[in-house]
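User: Hi! I have a protein structure encoded as tokens and I'd like to know what sequence might fold into it. I'm fairly new to this, so please keep things simple.
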């Protein structure tokens, strides 16, 4: 949108300005600018120079992932250079991992009503430099219950469970780590949480819940290696603060990760309770809070979770000795194709409407659309 009148008191700019829509998958050229009469009202001797400036400005806007830019006014100097005198702009925070170097140091405002902790800023900067996800929000820095949860969904479930059990005011932090973070990034994340947890003492002791569901592609052993390094480095502080550590995790290589955690408990003498996928994802919460009997929840056992090769069948018929009876060979069964209804709920062209300001969710869906080369975006509104 361009208006040849600039400065203040220029009236209704929206009605005066000339507009040009540029599709996402198309480039802007000087020819398109001139064909759209975008610069009508501009003296002819300045059109060429201004066209070149606007095309370059548009390319920078796209490359650096701006979402809004307004310049008012633009002037020509005596040596015929174009100079913007005032500018307001917004950038897409979700593109930080792509453009953080070009943006330079930018202090993004903290959420309304609270001051950001230096540790929160540090994790945010760490998150911007990795393709994984690292999030941390301090709710109550004096709280007794601290969490380090893998996965955005799991982090919500753990926080809700703690609140539902009546300990919401004791919940110190909210956050998550996911997307296969490296061992070093996990170490930095864990170190930050543990240092905050040990900063203020509580005579009742503190609770550190290390939770998560069943990971899809995150190597549990790799992330636990970074976590264990942080625990070992801060073991003296953890003991002084009487911190109880409760672990529940599953996913790729979880046996090795939990085994390493058990060895850490033995070598450091820290009170660490360890559970695997046989225990419900949030079962460690009431256990940690003293609301459930620990005898009802056996801990992770290395031997019972070790993979054992199946014995080779004696024959293809899979005969089983049951007295005088011999079972018949297993026969393939026809699948039941009938369903309760025949309505097709979703198709390749299904779209959705997102309620509320869920910009991160929408951004992820649009990124997926781009990678899949979908013709129409998944998000309709």
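Assistant: Happy to help. Inverse folding works backwards from shape to sequence: for each of the 381 positions I chose a residue that suits the local structure. Here it is:
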């Amino acid at each position: 949108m361009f208006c040849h009148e600039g400065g203040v008191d220029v009236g209704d700019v929206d009605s005066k300005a000339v507009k040009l829509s540029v599709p996402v998958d198309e480039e802007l050229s000087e020819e398109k600018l001139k064909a759209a009469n975008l610069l009508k009202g501009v003296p002819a001797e300045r059109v060429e120079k201004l066209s070149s400036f606007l095309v370059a400005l548009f390319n920078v806007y796209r490359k650096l992932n701006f979402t809004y830019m307004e310049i008012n006014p633009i002037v020509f100097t005596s040596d015929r250079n174009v100079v913007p005198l005032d500018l307001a702009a917004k950038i897409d925070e979700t593109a930080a991992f792509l453009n953080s170097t070009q943006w330079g140091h930018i202090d993004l405002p903290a959420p309304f009503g609270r001051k950001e902790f230096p540790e929160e800023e540090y994790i945010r900067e760490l998150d911007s430099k990795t393709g994984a996800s690292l999030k941390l929000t301090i709710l109550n820095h004096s709280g007794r219950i601290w969490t380090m949860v893998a996965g955005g969904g799991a982090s919500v479930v753990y926080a809700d469970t703690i609140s539902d059990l009546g300990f919401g005011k004791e919940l110190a932090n909210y956050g998550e780590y996911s997307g296969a973070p490296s061992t070093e990034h996990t170490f930095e994340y864990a170190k930050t949480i543990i240092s905050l947890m040990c900063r203020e003492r509580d005579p009742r002791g503190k609770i550190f819940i290390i939770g998560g569901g069943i990971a899809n592609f995150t190597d549990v052993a790799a992330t636990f290696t970074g976590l264990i390094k942080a625990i070992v480095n801060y073991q003296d502080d953890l003991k002084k603060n009487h911190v109880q550590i409760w672990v529940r995790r599953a996913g790729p290589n979880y046996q090795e990760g939990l085994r390493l955690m058990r060895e850490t408990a033995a070598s450091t003498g820290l009170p660490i309770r360890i559970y695997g996928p046989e225990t419900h994802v949030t079962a460690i919460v009431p256990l940690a809070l003293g609301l459930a009997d620990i005898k009802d929840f056996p801990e992770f056992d290395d031997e019972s979770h070790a993979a054992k090769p199946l014995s080779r069948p004696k024959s293809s018929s899979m005969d089983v000795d049951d007295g005088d009876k011999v079972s018949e060979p297993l026969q393939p069964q026809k699948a039941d194709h009938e369903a309760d209804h025949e309505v097709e709920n979703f198709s390749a062209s299904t779209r959705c409407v997102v309620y509320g300001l869920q910009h991160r969710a929408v951004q992820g869906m649009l990124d997926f659309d781009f990678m899949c080369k979908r013709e129409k975006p998944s998000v309709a509104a």
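A useful reference point when you look it over: Confidence is low (pLDDT under 50) at residues 307-323. Feel free to ask if any position seems puzzling.
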